[in-house]
Amino acid sequence: MADGMFGLSDELARETAPVWAKVKDHVTPMEWPAQAALIHEINQLKRERDAVILAHNYMTPEIFHGVGDYVGDSLGLAKEAARSTAKIIVQAGVHFMAETSKILSPEKMVLIPDLKAGCSLAASITGADVRLIKQRYPGLPVVTYVNTTADVKAETDICCTSANAVQVVEWAAKEWGVDRVILIPDEFLARNVAAQTTVGIIAWQGRCEVHERFTADDIAEMRAAYPNAEILAHPECPEEVLSAADFAGSTAAMTDYVMQRQPKQVVLITECSMASNIKGDVPGVDFIGPCNLCPYMQRITLTNIRDALLHLQFEVTVPEDMAERARLAVQRMVDLPPPLVPARYDLFKARHHVAVELI
Ligand code: 13P
Ligand code: SF4
User: Ligand 1 atom closest to Cα of 94?
Assistant: First the structure.
């Protein structure tokens, strides 16, 4: 971009040129001056406030490339929250991620730019539900997906994400000396994990409203229209979608797959900001739809991130006794070594056909 282009000052144009190069397929030249100014303001506020922005892979490209200090999947964000030395964490993601950061870093101020950035999975279950489940299945470990509220985590033995769910389930079964574990609240993640382990799974009927909409027919249509495209799916999708895909893994695992293998054509069966974010780094890869956006992730914008830093809003807190119990569950997960073969659902496809017991 030439200095001064789009009406930006030469200095701002120079400063934001690397970001523009990454977002220009997504942001129009008309939108860019306002966004470039916000990116500059946010990065300055971060320095003044000693703040760090932890951005999920589903953030829009101007957030992901423009202001995210750390970008990644749920597991990576949790690890970074524990590691960061900044005074303030701004969670560019959804509320359960901000709570997880607060649980792991109680001394830091954790801000979420919009309190309505929720999650259908986190909303599907409460701590009271988990207490009832424990009464029904005494002695079985409770493995909880990180997409849950702090009061659910407080009732949990160990958390997992889509990057390590199989490893965590197998660890819990061994540690408790049992052959079944409770894996809640995502029914599809539970079914996809059950296909890869001999450990019995007891599941809850929670759903991600973004991933539950994908069907095996969508994949068949994609294959017919683009026979050479490689199809990658997130484990929150129904099992028939994963069985029809070429690879499944967390958002970070899908990103690594595309970066390393650089397929000519790829379909990402997940929230569609992912494709927009990776595109800029792999110009030779052709990303083909579909596009499902997460309405909760989309609530986070450059404007409300700026306001979060300016007015120190909206602070996310977790009562200390709840946080202490939840911390044990999250920290256990963070302390596990990285999975030896992360998210290679393709290798294990249909290895087992264990019936999943639904609560
Ligand atoms: P991961 O980034 O852990 O794959 O999770 C996806 C998700 O749905 C987060 O909301
Ligand atoms: Fe929740 Fe699904 Fe949105 Fe992730 S994509 S925040 S799991 S609703």
Answer: 10
